[in-house]
TrEMBL record:
It comes from the Bacteria. InterPro entries: GntR_C, TF_FadR/GntR_C, Tscrpt_reg_HTH_GntR, WH-like_DNA-bd_sf, WH_DNA-bd_sf. SMART domains: FCD, HTH_GNTR. Keywords: DNA-binding, Transcription, Transcription regulation. This is FadR/GntR family transcriptional regulator. Signal peptide: none annotated. Residues 1-69 form the HTH gntR-type domain. It comes from Streptomyces hintoniae. The keyword ATP-binding does not apply.
Length: 223
């Protein structure tokens, strides 16, 4: 095991065991290196790596702290990794969304508040009948993010936020090349919202599946 990997594992062990808790300040570099049997250099590299994935927070002039370890914070790293996808893996990301997003939408049917539903309706109303493709894609991301947030599951919300990146270009491409794509997306959004208003989890799940599968099916036919 490389010395930096060993250092990462030892710090991870301290956090997992509870020796270091969210918000705790790490001991001084020299003290921690001695306690863990590490060189200062390997410890420094481990801290740098763990700060990149939001496990640690290095505050200049103050010290290094364990972050809150909230799922939303930790899963930010997923978005970074996903941005490096190849175009031929877009379908795989869409397939994962097709598994997760309908489930989250079904959960939202019983948990989302009337205020949240009103906000989603207002968003659709502001778009009008003929938004530009770019406006629709931005609104689509916000629409689904709002629904998943309404499910009350922060892990799902963060996962789906991270997975949305690679499908954005596919949505724009579809809107520019497929006739009726914009109108079809708006119809599907309204159907999803109506199912949520009715507190009909299965209808909400079905419409969300149709919505994602239509993009997936179109993209599969073009590749």
């Amino acid at each position: 095991m490389a010395v930096t990997d060993e250092a990462i594992e030892k710090i991870k062990g301290m956090i997992v065991s509870g020796a270091l808790r969210p918000g705790d300040r790490l001991p001084r570099e020299g003290e921690l290196a001695a306690d863990l049997g590490l060189s200062r250099n390997s410890l420094r590299e481990a801290v740098r790596a763990l700060s990149l994935i939001r496990i640690l927070d290095v505050r200049q002039g103050d010290g290094t702290y364990v972050t809150s370890l909230d799922p939303q914070l930790l899963l930010e790293a997923l978005s970074f990794v996903v941005d490096f996808h190849r175009d031929d893996t877009v379908l795989e990301f869409l397939a994962v969304r097709r598994i997760l997003e309908p489930a989250a939408t079904a959960m939202a049917a019983s948990r989302i508040s009337e205020g949240q539903l009103d906000a989603l309706q207002a968003q659709l109303d502001r778009l009008g009948a003929a938004p530009s493709v770019e406006e629709l894609v931005a609104a689509d991301l916000d629409f689904h993010r709002g629904i998943v947030r309404g499910s009350g599951n922060t892990v799902l919300c963060s996962l789906l936020d991270g997975l949305s990146g690679p499908t954005t270009r596919a949505r724009i491409w579809r809107g520019l090349t497929q006739e009726d794509a914009v109108a079809g997306t708006l119809r599907e959004h309204r159907a999803i919202l109506a199912a949520l208003r009715d507190r009909d989890a299965e209808a909400a799940r079905s419409w969300a599946t149709v919505h994602i599968a239509s993009v997936e099916q179109w993209l599969r036919s073009t590749l």
